[in-house]
Amino acid sequence: MAKTVFFTLNNFQKEGGGTIRMLGIINELARHNDEIILMSNIKDKSKVSPNVQHIALETEFSPEEKRKFQFLLGAFGYSFLNRAFSRQLESLRKSFSKLNSDDKVIFFEYLDNSIGYWLKKNNIIPSYINDIHGIASNEFIFQRKKAKSLLSKLFLKVKEKIAMALDKKVFNDAEAIIYASAAMDDYYKNLYPSLRKKNNIFLPYVLNNANVKAPDNDVIQKIKADWGITDSDFVFLFAGAYKETGGIQDLMLAFDNIAPEFPEAKLILVGDGPTFENCRTLKESLSSSERILQMGRQPYNYLSSFQEIAHVLVCPDRQNLFSDLIVHVKYLDALISGKIVINGSFKSVMEINSGKKLSLLFKPSDIDDLGHKMKDSIRHYDTLRHEFSDSKQYTLDNLTYSNYIKNLNNFGH
């Protein structure tokens, strides 16, 4: 009998949107199907349902090798890589020899997707399905707009074009694409019309029930004591990755604008990433610096405790293509906190808010509008708590992988 195989080079050590999605899909499908195989570098197998069979990969790419692989595959033909990456190719050939020819193979992340294409071209697998986790060309476009020098802009333009060429190769050759929103489906079909002929699979970014954790009172009390947070404070919380599109700088500026009017307000920032130090520098320049608590990366299982401390959770992402196409896991995590949530009105977000207003929405990249929504959340706190009182239950009832089991079962057929 044909099995459904999931492939990723990820070791699942670092929790985030990608690993949460992968585990959510695998574990939910395994509840209904015992013919599931995970090919990965996973370290802790307890994160995965005991029904799942494992094939441990002996293949790894260094960060430099990942960049080189994707650049060369986008710029040249697949055979150009066979010599440069012969070690990885032979290792993967050995791992895939353990599968049957009729097994369905789904490749999860960006590098994984490219490997699926490479393996098919080398006749190691007959076909592959891609789950789209990111849009590399969009990242380069965003960086290019922020770049100062002409040389940097030209370099990022070249990277953008090569990333688009890679996507075209990989997605056009896939048996099917798993897309996370109607907006994503439209975007890729307009960009690559040949995708309209494929039997694509709709599977939005939703919640993994296993990740719903109760707050820990000991953790709550420690956070309050360590950071001087009192019951009289009104706390805004951001928890997520520091990146250019993340909007943390916008959130800090919006908070600084409203802080004089609301002396009881504090802003907690949890997370790390490429723009962490830039945000630290910005923080020190603001008049409200002492009321912005930049806590760095924290264990994911502390998230519900941080949420319990907060009055309002803010997801301040700037306008960008990725957010229009994919709902961020931090938004879903925020919705199940039972607290007021402020989020950008992206296309993907409006899809899941259709007919049901789940949160306060602001115009992405508009610092003034974000500030206005933050003011409203303080001034009308009790009214808004009541207005959004059922958002948590709605999310748990409607926005989990268990709600999309029929779509998941399409993997194997």
Write structural notes for this entry.
This protein has 2 domains: about 5-205, 3-Layer(aba) Sandwich (Rossmann fold); about 210-400, Glycogen Phosphorylase B (Rossmann fold), CATH 3.40.50.2000. It has 19 helices and 13 strands. It has helices spanning about 15-30, 65-75, 80-85, 85-95, 110-120, 135-145, 150-175, 180-190, 215-225, 250-260, 275-285, 305-310, 320-325, 330-335, 345-350, 365-380, 380-385, 390-400, 405-410, and strands at about 5, 35-40, 55, 105, 130, 175-180, 200, 235-240, 265-270, 290-295, 310-315, 340-345, 360. A 7-stranded parallel sheet has the order 3-2-1-4-5-6-7. A 6-stranded parallel sheet has the order 10-9-8-11-12-13, sandwiched between helices. Helix 1 (about 15-30) links the parallel strand 1 (about 5) and strand 2 (about 35-40). Helix 2 packs across helix 7 (about 150-175) and helix 9 crosses helix 12 (about 305-310). The longest helix has 24 residues, at about 150-175. It is globular. The model has no long low-confidence stretch (mean pLDDT about 90). InterPro entries: Glyco_trans_1. It comes from Epilithonimonas vandammei. GO terms for molecular function: glycosyltransferase activity.
